[in-house]
Specification:
globular; 2 strands; alpha+beta
Length: about 90
């Protein structure tokens, strides 16, 4: 797994590649969220999973259908990166 250690974007290797816009991606890069992203996430209807998936799509510039292609076993690592951006990472 490749993850940067600075406060900038984080790149996470996927356990298997996904196809995005005709390109095959072996990793995704999440930019740091802005306050506006958090405000928009608060308006997303659904539970924590729905909001987390929305935020992953927003930060990685992926459509909901593309986010749905991310291997499920990669989701906890990606969600931890998202939570780490806002100081809500799991212990």
């Amino acid at each position: 797994m490749t993850e940067t250690t600075d406060r900038g974007p984080r790149t996470i290797a996927l356990s298997e590649p996904i196809v995005v816009g005709g390109r095959t991606l072996a990793e995704i890069t999440l930019r740091r969220p802005k306050t506006g992203d958090l405000r928009r996430m608060d308006k997303v209807t659904g539970g924590d999973l729905t909001k987390t998936l929305w935020m992953i799509g927003t930060l990685a510039e992926l459509s909901p259908a593309e986010v749905d292609e991310i291997p499920a076993d990669d989701l906890p690592r990606i969600a931890d990166v998202v939570a780490g951006f806002t100081g809500t990472a799991r212990e």
